[in-house]
Amino acid sequence: METSGAIIQAFIAPLVIGGISAVLGALISITDKIVNNYGDLVIDINSGKRELEIKGGAALLLTLAENGIFIPSACGGRGSCGACKVKVVSDIGPHLPTETPFLAKEEMADNIRLSCQVKVKENFQIEIPDSLFNVKQYEGTIERIVNLTHDIKEVYVKLPEGEEIDFVCGQYGQFEAPPYNKIKTPTQRAYSMSSAPSDKNHLEFLIRLVPGGIVTTYVHERLTEGQKINVVGPFGDFNVKDTGATMIGVAGGSGMAPFKSIFNHMTDTGEIQTREIWYFFGARTKDDLFYLDWLNELDAKYEKFHFVAALSEPQPEDDWEGETGLITEVLARYLAERVDRTQPVEGYLCGSPGMLDACMAVMRQFDMREDKIYFDKFA
After folding, report:
1. How far is the C-alpha of 137 from the C-alpha of 186, rounded, in Å?
2. Which terminus in the chain has less CB density within 10 A, N or C?
3. Distance of CA 137 to the CA centre of its chain
4. Per CATH, which fold does 2-132 belong to?
5. What is the DSSP letter of 109?
6. How wide is the angle at C-alpha 322 spanned by C-alphas 319 and 324, nearest 5°?
7. CA–CA separation, 13 vs 374, rounded Å?
8. How far apart are CA 127 and CA 124, in angstroms?
9. CA angle centred on 193, ends 188 and 197, rounded to 5°
10. Parts of the chain belonging to CATH 2.40.30.10
11. Ordered per-residue pLDDT tens for the chain, 379 residues
């Protein structure tokens, strides 16, 4: 019970902080727009590599996006994910209370700021990774929608004619829902890309319905095949390291997305035949499992690929003969009994903060180095 409580706290705390941050940010923004007019300003990016002449007063995140510079933002600029960090070289004053929950002391000392929370009120000098200059916005067409489970859809997007995207397995894109109902502005959320990098003319996402989620609700209730949709990307540094170490992958639900991309890419390149891979996928009941035929086929075909599905609450009608229990319990059993830990081992995780923390705790118990555990954490 204590472990469950810790996991719940780990999951809820960021949401509470995010909600408070979003409200404070909105109040600050409204007041600022009413009172001030900042005129024409300049943003200097990476010591003159790009210069933007802009109208002042809007959030840095939005201002950059309007000028084709896209900063990652898993929450779409609500101030609840902490992803949109940039280094502000100019002195623009102290960090705001809406920023500090997401910044380490070292980041604040280096003047790292949340670009969704700081307003462009004067000429700015900022530094961003050069890779962000390659991020683009695409107006894609929804080519296919597939119901994978009762709450997960596979969404396949065709890019505009003549356009291609280059990305690395594990990266994500920001999927945009247009205004609907009481939602007055386009809203973006981040989803891992499940398509293989070799398919440069399409992007695929696995989107799980989140109760009350603006974009997920739109996708599950309104999105149709043939519809135009905006996607921004690629973003992120979650990727498979080129070390040859044994891979221990763990996911649940839509956390399948980056692993689908990874395993299809490794099949394309032949690496799936040479690298030891253990992939653990946790679900509540059999109805929450998907892609089983494909994963079991990989397991049967490739000697070094091992797929382990586990149900935490199997139902009588499931007729389940596989592993049961929490995915962390199953992971611990396999690390103790089946996985060869005399060889270098790396962890790859995708899921909620609580799930990630629990899996990392198990991996540490089995002497897996923390700097060799890589993750993609849902906001």
Report:
1. 13
2. N
3. 17
4. Ubiquitin-like (UB roll) (3.10.20)
5. H
6. 95
7. 22
8. 10
9. 135
10. 136-235
11. 333 344 334 444 444 455 555 555 555 555 555 555 678 999 999 999 999 999 999 999 999 999 999 999 878 788 888 999 999 999 999 999 999 999 999 999 999 999 999 999 999 999 999 999 999 999 999 999 999 999 999 999 999 999 999 999 999 999 999 999 999 989 999 999 999 999 999 999 999 999 999 999 999 999 999 999 999 999 998 999 999 999 999 999 999 999 999 999 999 999 999 999 999 999 999 999 999 999 999 999 999 999 999 999 999 999 999 999 999 999 999 999 999 999 999 999 998 888 899 999 999 999 999 999 999 876 5
Written as six digits, the tokens of 208 are 């799980």
Other CB atoms within 10 A of residue 296 CB: 12
CATH tag for 246-377 (out of 3.40.50.80, 3.40.50.300, 2.40.50.180, 2.40.10.10):
3.40.50.80
pTM score, whole prediction: 0.84
DSSP assignments along 242-310, one per residue: TT-PEEEEEEEGGGHHHHHHHHHHHHHHTGGGTS-EEEEEEESSGGG--SHHHHHHHHHH-TTEEEEEE
Question: Which among 124, 113, 128 is positioned nearest to 82, based on CA atoms?
Answer: 113
Residues in the chain: 379
Distance between CA atoms of residues 219 and 145, nearest Å: 9
